[in-house]
Write a structure and sequence with these properties.
This protein is an alpha+beta fold. The protein has helices spanning 2-17, 25-41, 45-50, 64-77; strands spanning 52-58, 62-63, 80-92, 99-111, 118-131, 134-142. The chain is built from four helices and six strands.
């Protein structure tokens, strides 16, 4: 179940940010989230982990190693993963411009063929940190 939640959160942020330019910090944040989505859809664990901060935590329990193992397991279990963002928004912290946030309601499906074998709905919140000029996912929370 945690695997799905990680995928949902990452996809939510990515879908929120599709179509934005890269001229400002918020657009760069959105592009980073889009990269998260693409790495999940392409089942590229290495690329995904490049986008996850070394101090990552999920729901104040899981760490970066958990994220890698969970993503790998999800990629092995399902040939196809789709994420549908039902509601989303992103913003840069006005006090700390090196922190960005995204929230979304996400529907996540996993399938071996055309019909989904698994469906989940989640409210997710992501916190990204600007590190060496790149946005990386640092905190992930879901309900």
């Amino acid at each position: 179940m945690l695997l799905w939640k990680l995928a949902v959160a990452l996809m939510a942020v990515a879908l929120m940010l599709v179509g934005c330019g890269r001229d400002d910090p918020e657009a760069a944040l959105q592009a980073a989230v889009e990269s998260l989505q693409e790495s999940i859809e392409s089942k590229d664990t290495s690329r995904l982990m490049d986008l996850v901060h070394h101090e990552f935590s999920a729901n104040q329990e899981a760490d970066r190693d958990w994220a890698r193992r969970t993503a790998t397991l999800m990629f092995l279990r399902h040939r196809k993963v789709n994420v549908i963002a039902l509601n989303s928004r992103s913003w840069i912290d006005p006090t700390y411009p090196d922190k960005g946030y995204s929230e979304a309601q996400i529907a996540l499906t996993g399938a071996e063929g055309w019909l989904p074998q698994r469906l989940g709905h989640y409210d997710v919140r992501l916190e990204s940190w600007l590190t060496d000029g790149e946005w990386q996912l640092a905190r992930l929370n879901w309900e």
